[in-house]
């Protein structure tokens, strides 16, 4: 699975990324049926960090460190950061009517960043046999991990045992299905349960905080398996145990869990939220338990992420 850039042949696109030349990031919008070019927040800083020698030095000496993200999160917690909210809403076309609170009611940009939405803004698919997207974002699926040819760069896949920090668990899910959901800074940053069940405790697996933007992932897809992350086992009635993960990234101040372990949850219930920054979630299903929707599978095979919102159907439980 390779990441396709507009106007390029797939191989040429990957070569340009690996050589450090940033091109447009294209995803498919489920709702409009059109391919769209991503408007990258912090584009200039991202280019400098991953495409220049001074930037790469800064990346490894500071940017990937937890203290850097804590420092940036502290800045976004300050009252002065409120002045960023209005331009952000305007520049990225957000709809304030979806927010529980109006933009002028937030005490800081970070508070706005992990804002809650009105329930009617993200309705949960009501079919008893559906599985839903856990977050707003750009999604890729792998129906069978044992047959995956790569993620973002053909032939390069992150190591499952490293991701899960558990060899036996990796063996159990080696032929399972995977959904990777990438959240941009402009997205709603609360994440939800994809199905009903009983969740266990969230296990923290520490690591650095590299960017999870495709610019970074095309250079090193192992970022997904080594960044700071959390792992929760969700026991379900019809799908066995679903592995639910949150992946931290540069400038993500915290991965915050809001659910209570061992208490039953309904499909679409909130699990937690990310503080400031782009980030990702990963779902891993037992082999043969889920059939992903055709548009998700088709776009993933065509090397495109599919944009879809939390609560919408991503697939069906296999009886």
UniProtKB/TrEMBL annotation:
The keyword Metal-binding does not apply. InterPro entries: PS_Dcarbxylase. It comes from the Bacteria. Its EC number is 4.1.1.65. GO terms for molecular function: phosphatidylserine decarboxylase activity. Keywords: Decarboxylase, Lyase, Pyruvate, Zymogen. This is Phosphatidylserine decarboxylase proenzyme. It comes from Rubripirellula reticaptiva. The gene is psd.
């Amino acid at each position: 699975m390779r990441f396709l850039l507009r106007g390029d042949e797939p191989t040429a696109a990957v070569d340009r990324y690996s050589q450090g030349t940033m091109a447009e990031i294209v995803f498919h919008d489920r709702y409009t049926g059109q391919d769209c070019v991503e408007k990258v927040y912090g584009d200039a800083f991202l280019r400098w960090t991953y495409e220049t020698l001074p930037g790469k030095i800064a990346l490894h000496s500071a940017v990937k460190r937890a203290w850097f993200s804590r420092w940036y999160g502290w800045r976004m917690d300050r009252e002065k950061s409120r002045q960023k909210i209005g331009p952000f809403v305007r520049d990225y076309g957000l709809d304030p009517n979806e927010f529980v609170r109006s933009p002028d009611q937030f005490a800081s940009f970070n508070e706005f960043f992990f804002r809650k939405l009105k329930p009617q803004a993200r309705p949960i698919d009501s079919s008893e046999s559906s599985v839903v997207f856990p977050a707003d974002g750009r999604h890729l699926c792998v129906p069978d991990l044992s047959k995956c040819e790569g993620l973002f760069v053909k032939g390069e896949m992150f190591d499952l045992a490293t991701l899960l920090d558990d060899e036996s668990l990796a063996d159990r899910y080696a032929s399972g299905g995977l959904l990777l959901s990438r959240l941009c800074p402009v997205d709603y940053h609360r994440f939800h349960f994809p199905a009903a069940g009983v969740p266990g405790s969230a296990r923290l697996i520490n690591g650095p905080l590299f960017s999870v933007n495709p610019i970074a992932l095309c250079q090193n897809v192992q970022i997904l398996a080594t960044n700071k992350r959390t792992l929760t086992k969700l026991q379900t009635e019809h799908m066995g145990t679903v592995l639910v993960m949150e992946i931290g990234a540069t400038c993500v101040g915290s991965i915050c869990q809001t659910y209570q372990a061992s208490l039953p949850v309904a499909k679409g219930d909130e699990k937690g939220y990310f503080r400031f920054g782009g980030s990702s979630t990963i779902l891993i299903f037992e082999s043969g338990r889920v059939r992903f929707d055709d548009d998700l599978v088709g776009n993933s095979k065509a090397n495109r992420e599919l944009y879809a919102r939390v609560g919408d159907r991503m697939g069906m439980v296999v009886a």
